[in-house]
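Side project, low priority. Logging it here so it doesn't get lost.
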Amino acid sequence: MNIDIELDELTLFGIYSDPKRDARRHTASIAYAVDVPEDIAGRAGDDAAKVARVHVSEIDNLDFFADHKTILQDFIAQREGSGSRSANVTVKRDVCSMK
């Protein structure tokens, strides 16, 4: 998002590395949680066409690249205390939850 964040503001959320998560190649995502104030606007970088702030209630109705929706759903489920929301999916995936 091209915003400045202090390291002590980051909380490691999980590591996602299922070889099937990206059809182009095997990649891993290391997901962090951070509070971004509403008055801060992110900018797209070299890996994104645009950045948009959406409400969590909209996530299920939006399209995301690869397994980014899964990562967001897992974060929401953990935040709500219900564990991994996507644990019942039929596609095998490797997830290291940092709960």
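Brief comment: The two ends are 24 Å apart (CA to CA).
Revisit when time allows.
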